């Protein structure tokens, strides 16, 4: 049986009508308090909004209750809102949930701990409000139409809201019964009919497959103890993310994608790329693109999580967490996005790489473009193709002076900003020559033959040596097959 909302269907309908009637929407709040104050609310900072609200009209009451977390007199509240309120004594009430006008919807969660810092508001099963990782995951999610989609570890249902615009059927799961009820309330309030199931990871949907699976799981790297359900999975280290990646073969339809935010260990003496790449099962017909966006030292990593969780270092958690990192020889934590596709091919590819600090955040269009270029490489002979240069290429060259013999070229770095990821990679003179010849009538094979003849080299050996670099240039979008359609 699917999970039921926090309030009855008639109460949901009355609440929706009241929110709509009083303009409790993203646009309505911007109109009421201005763009700067509204942006503050989206960062969970109500300071400016509370200064601007003025008289207690119905919209102001809703904003104070559900966005600012403040108590108001019960007499100022209309009956349709009461089911989501709780008494604070002396005839006043406050919201029992955070009701966020998000995009064109409403999203239900708990308040962040810094808005509700009292001990009674800290609970292990708190449902996290919309955070940065939820936003980054949505930004990176593919947007093509699908028949079935799964939001695994849904929390309050934020990813499922977006999936409702592209999937015929949406399923959402969560280990927490409370989170499942929050998601059910989000769905009902927005008029969606999701299947919402309770259970750990993929267990509630065992034996079923989906075209698109997204997850913003409790990926915090730690000793495996659970203090906060939306943060801690109960698995030690990065085992949860490894488990999720390994489940792709059973979760996905042919051609389906799994996308999730992940944290992974950087351990002394170990290549993190090999570690994370090893999450993808061999022989399962799975392609994967794993992109690291940031790396955080263990001390700031722990402190950031504890701050978000309400300063639990007073309970001794900080010391235990850091001691565990030390015993495990963990030096830092990487963060990024994992994308797995069930391609069904035998010659699958797992690519693990790191973005430069100046890179933009990953987008669904970039994910689609990467897999499109990989499919092209799998289906074509790169030597027989013509190429055009990618957009906005920049070549940086470094030359060092060698005594009195003049300048010697020592380094060439290609920057590929065309798709917004700002790849920066050292390249060989051969790659520079091939990029210089892109956009002409010659095929890559013909270019390499001419270069070999000019240098007195063997054309076949030159082509063999060039292929790994050509592959990287095509993946990056620096060399674009002329037959590929324009993006977008």
From TrEMBL:
The keyword Transferase applies. Pfam families: DUF7059, DUF7782, MTS. Residues 142-225 form the Methyltransferase small domain. InterPro entries: DNA_methylase_N6_adenine_CS, DUF7059, DUF7782, Euk-Arch_PrmC-MTase, SAM-dependent_MTases_sf, Small_mtfrase_dom. It comes from the Bacteria. GO terms for biological process: methylation. Keywords: Methyltransferase, S-adenosyl-L-methionine, Transferase. GO terms for molecular function: N-methyltransferase activity; nucleic acid binding; protein methyltransferase activity; S-adenosylmethionine-dependent methyltransferase activity. This is Methyltransferase. It comes from Streptomyces boluensis.
């Amino acid at each position: 049986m699917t999970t039921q909302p926090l309030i009855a269907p008639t109460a949901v309908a009355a609440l929706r009508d009241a929110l709509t009637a009083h303009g409790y929407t993203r646009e309505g709040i911007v109109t009421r308090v201005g763009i700067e104050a509204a942006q503050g609310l989206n960062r969970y900072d109500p300071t400016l909004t509370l200064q601007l609200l003025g008289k207690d009209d119905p919209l102001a009451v809703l904003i104070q209750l559900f966005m600012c977390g403040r108590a108001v007199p019960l007499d100022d509240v209309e009956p349709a809102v009461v089911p989501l309120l709780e008494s604070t004594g002396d005839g006043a009430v406050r919201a029992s949930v955070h009701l966020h006008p998000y995009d064109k919807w409403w999203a239900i969660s708990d308040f962040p701990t810094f808005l509700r810092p009292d001990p009674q508001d800290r609970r292990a099963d708190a449902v996290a409000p919309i955070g940065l990782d939820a936003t980054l995951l949505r930004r990176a999610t593919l947007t093509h139409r699908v028949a079935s989609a799964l939001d695994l570890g849904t929390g309050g249902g934020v990813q499922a809201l977006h999936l409702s615009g592209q999937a015929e059927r949406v399923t959402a799961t969560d280990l927490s019964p409370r989170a499942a009820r929050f998601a059910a309330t989000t769905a009902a309030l927005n008029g969606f009919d999701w299947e919402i199931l309770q259970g750990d990871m993929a267990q509630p949907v065992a034996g079923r497959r989906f075209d698109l699976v997204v997850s913003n799981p409790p990926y915090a790297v730690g000793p495996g103890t659970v203090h906060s359900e939306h943060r801690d999975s109960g698995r030690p280290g990065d085992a949860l993310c490894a488990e999720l990646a390994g489940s792709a073969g059973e979760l996905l339809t042919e051609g389906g994608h799994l996308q999730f935010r992940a944290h992974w260990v950087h351990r002394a003496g170990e290549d993190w790329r090999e570690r994370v790449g090893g999450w993808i099962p061999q022989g399962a017909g799975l392609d994967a693109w794993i992109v690291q966006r940031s790396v955080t030292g263990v001390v700031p990593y722990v402190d950031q999580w504890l701050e978000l969780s309400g300063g639990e270092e007073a309970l001794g958690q900080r010391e235990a967490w850091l001691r565990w990192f030390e015993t495990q020889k963990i030096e830092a934590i990487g963060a990024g996005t994992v994308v797995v596709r069930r391609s069904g091919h035998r010659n699958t590819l797992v690519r693990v790489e790191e973005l430069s600090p100046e890179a933009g955040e990953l987008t669904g269009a970039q994910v689609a473009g990467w897999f499109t270029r990989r499919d092209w490489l799998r289906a074509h002979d790169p030597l027989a193709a013509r190429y055009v240069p990618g957009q906005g290429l920049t070549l940086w060259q470094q030359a060092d002076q060698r005594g009195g013999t003049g300048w010697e070229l020592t380094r060439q770095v290609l920057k590929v900003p065309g798709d917004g990821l700002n790849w920066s990679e050292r390249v060989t003179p051969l790659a520079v020559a091939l990029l210089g010849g892109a956009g002409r009538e010659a095929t890559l094979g013909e270019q390499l033959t001419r270069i070999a003849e000019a240098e007195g080299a063997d054309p076949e050996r030159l082509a063999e040596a060039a292929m790994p670099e050509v592959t990287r240039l095509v993946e990056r979008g620096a060399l674009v097959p002329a037959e590929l359609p324009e993006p977008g």
